[in-house]
């Protein structure tokens, strides 16, 4: 009976022992010891690069992967350092991230949301990736961003241009360096009105998923504001390879402008079809028929060949820019691979450096610490002038380039010329803008 | 009216590729009784024969031009293809006509690949269930696609279309339409006429030659033909090679329509298989008719007018699934397909 009598000392020691016992399964994992998902516990830290290696955006995915690998080299102190030498923040020292050597795993999103989520999940659960980055399709980016939010992982979006990524589908754990459909439209519409006039009838072919919808809505609204009329908007499945049956009806639609809200392989094939059907030689309503590609990239221009000559579009970055950051990146990438980087390569390289820099400044890999370091972060030296990661929606704001397919290229890479650098103020919008309405950032999730 | 005419034309053009692949598929099924899911891969291999020839022609002599710089600021390298360096303007002509010249290489190579495929793998599955045949040929298609991806990468690769065929033809004026209302790309017209010639050639070969007569007899009653002392297996192997050549040449010519990529065979295979089923398994005429018919239907389903009408009744877009919807309806109403023989694949 006396054995059951507890004094204060016994109660405390028993309580401590029971407490330690109950917490044992938890403290045996390093991750939870640190209080967040996949906390690195050795001398290395693993990043997950989730890019399309097959599908309509495979070209962009391949270039993204090259840029990620280059960024890892630079973070680990190998190579010439690239844009680490021009980045306005001095937190990165070329000794990995927080002293840990950077390693990486890769996955193939197949340009499909479900495959991308499965791939990201595998990298988080099996490979212990502390950050996931990638994209090349907004559908994929939004799906993976949602997964990372649930898992307590930072998602540094790659090439995703839908308004929704930092609009109705924004997440506290997700960050986008790339610009968006609204910004493209705001930069491009005034240039189109200036070059082609304000009395135009536009026919839109639009990729049938989140990016296409928001891109089309943005460019239609912006061009209609300058006086253009939208005569049709035809949605085309992302898997389409032969666009002839979508392009043929344009001939008799009364439109004098064809807007191709397509990207990657889709754009290459739809533009090829449009040129094959002689649209660029056609006169309609007494005007020369024109084609517009709101979102351009050098890889697409290369794929489409001479068909891009004289066609206007917008881009996040171009290798011909002459600021110190761009020159350093082009030099570094060009030495490594023998050709200049695409905008997809640029944005993912920046995202990797920005993540690493945020970890260094926060002094932790904890997603909430990293997110706090990124929110409102103002920087320069990464090729886009002065840039800010807005805290309200985790969207980067910077100047936008309006480009045109070069009429007389001097080399196989000299395919686009920068027509105008649209200042950030012209493309900036309020967080509650109608194109970004709905959804909420929520709060940071460290996982565990 | 001009829009409808244009979509019919476009459907015939789309249907050309379906018909060419479906013809080979049904030819193999009719002769060997094998459901060959690797047939789309043969179409893809044909396209990559054109890519290979194009790459060979691109092999260049490199000189350094000290007056020009590359994107890194180094002296620019000027590349001149050896074929142009050696043959001058004739070399330029060869490069310009890469695709048609590739046909000359594609025909023997594809026949060889077809024969090797049949002798090396598929003959071991003649007496196995169709499910086994589908599995092994589907696996073979994946392997072939991955090998092409390994060698050429996952990106689409442009092949030079002859300059003379890059523009479009105002075909509508021939049929009384307003000038400029029915314009059609020259190369797509070439592709359509090419497919008509190949399809006619195969039918004529089967109809008017002794070899063709034996093959048709073998398709009708293999055993009896064998009892007459004819080596029908050898002829069927040759037919497999011919079917491979038809798919391969279709692939070569298609490189001028769309840029080849490693998964293009798989993209076409499923549609072509549906075409064969709709046309009737083993029916050559059915495969060709269904190919063109479904190509036209697919084109019409992509028209804004049709899409709007479907959206107005609250249904999602059907342009990507129209072929399957039609297939379902036909198989429900007539399980043997449009021109299929009674009893074939009906149970």
Task: Describe the overall structure.
The complex is a heterodimer of chains A (448) and B (347). In chain A, helix 5 (138-151) links the parallel strand 3 and strand 4 (154-157). Chain A starts with 7 loop residues before the first helix and ends in a 21-residue tail after the last helix. Chain A is built from 14 helices and 17 strands. In chain A, helix 3 runs parallel beside helix 12 (343-362) and helix 12 packs across helix 13. In chain A, the strands form four sheets. Chain A has a seven-stranded mixed sheet with strand order 7-6-8-11-12-16-17, sandwiched between helices. A five-stranded parallel sheet of chain A has the order 2-1-3-4-5, with helices on both faces. Chain A has a three-stranded antiparallel sheet with strand order 13-14-15, with no helix packed on it. Chain A folds into two domains: 44-179 and 319-398, Response regulator (Rossmann fold); 182-315, Response regulator (Rossmann fold). Chain A is α/β, with parallel strands linked by helices and 448 residues long. With 347 residues, chain B is mostly helical. Chain B has a single domain (2-57, 97-333), classed as Orthogonal Bundle (ABC transporter involved in vitamin B12 uptake, BtuC). Helices cover 66% and strands 6% of the residues of chain B. Chain B is built from 14 helices and four strands. The longest helix of chain B has 31 residues, at 2-32. The mean pLDDT of chain B is 88. The interface between A and B is large, with 45 and 47 residues.
Q: Into which percentage range does the β-strand content of chain A fall?
A: 15-25%
Give the mean pLDDT of chain A.
Answer: 89
Distance from N terminus to C terminus of chain B (CA atoms, Å) equals 43 Å
- CATH topology annotation of the largest domain in chain A: Rossmann fold
CATH superfamily of the largest domain in chain A: Response regulator
